[in-house]
Design goal:
The chain has about 220 residues and is α/β, with parallel strands linked by helices. The protein is built from 7 helices and 10 strands. The protein has a 6-stranded mixed β-sheet with strand order 6-7-8-3-9-10, with helices on both faces. A 4-stranded antiparallel β-sheet has the order 2-1-4-5, with helices on one face. A hairpin with a 2-residue loop joins strand 9 and strand 10. The longest helix has 17 residues.
């Protein structure tokens, strides 16, 4: 499999008043095209910080994040934002849907490079693929948690990203909805060739990933 992203010696330090807190210490990870990686570990282990660094949202204190031979943190802010919008799709625990927009509008609004008509057409196709097209005119308040997460997935996919980053994607869902989201992520990995990185406390979800990294106190304790 071809290399997609490489993290070398990535560390992240925060300042809490006078105190220096190490969120990540010397992290090395190789991500390949069509990888499915789960990052697990206790609360405060640095999982979300690592995900944000992979996604170009949070600059490391030291180390390199190379994607297609370019260090994304040597890019200018505008270039990195463009890279993030076109290459990365984000799925969060709390969905972050816009309550005033219906399902299709929530998905299409993220198609930053498309004209209105083609964005809506693309959005409808994604909603069909994720088996939620029947809800396209509903508003977020009318959806179940599992349906909201499907909409969030469609929104993450609309710009055809190479990599999908999920932060506790099943954290708010009942067992049935959890299983559906897990199945969808596996389908996206196998059928669409998406590279998926998941931060999760859900060990069942982690077990189904191709690779698992265990973080503790900002360090990789185990890889499998």
């Amino acid at each position: 499999m071809s290399n997609l992203m490489q993290l070398s010696g990535v560390s992240k330090t925060f300042h809490n008043g006078q105190e220096e807190v190490s969120a990540l210490k010397n992290i090395d990870i190789n991500l390949h095209v069509q990888d499915y990686l789960a990052i697990i570990g206790p609360s405060g282990a640095g999982k979300s910080t690592l995900l944000h660094i992979i996604g170009g949202l949070d600059e490391p204190t030291s180390g390199k994040v190379i994607c297609h031979d370019k260090d994304i943190y040597l890019m200018k802010e505008k270039e990195r934002a463009s890279w993030r919008n076109s290459k990365v799709g984000f799925v969060f625990q709390f969905y972050h849907l816009i309550e005033e927009l219906n399902v299709l509008e929530n998905v299409a609004i993220s198609a930053f490079s498309e004209s209105g008509k083609s964005a809506f057409k693309k959005g409808e196709k994604l909603l069909e693929y994720l088996e939620i097209a029947g809800r396209k005119n509903f508003f977020p308040s009318q959806l179940s948690g599992g349906e909201k997460q499907k909409v969030a997935l469609a929104r993450a996919l609309i710009n055809e990203p190479e990599i999908i980053l999920c932060d506790e994607p099943t954290g708010n869902l009942d067992k049935y909805s959890q299983d559906k989201v897990i199945e969808l992520l596996e389908k996206l990995n196998k059928e669409k060739g998406k590279t998926i990185v998941i931060v999760t406390h859900n060990l069942e979800l982690a077990k189904r990933a191709k690779k698992v990294i265990t973080l503790k106190s900002g360090e990789i304790m185990e890889e499998s």
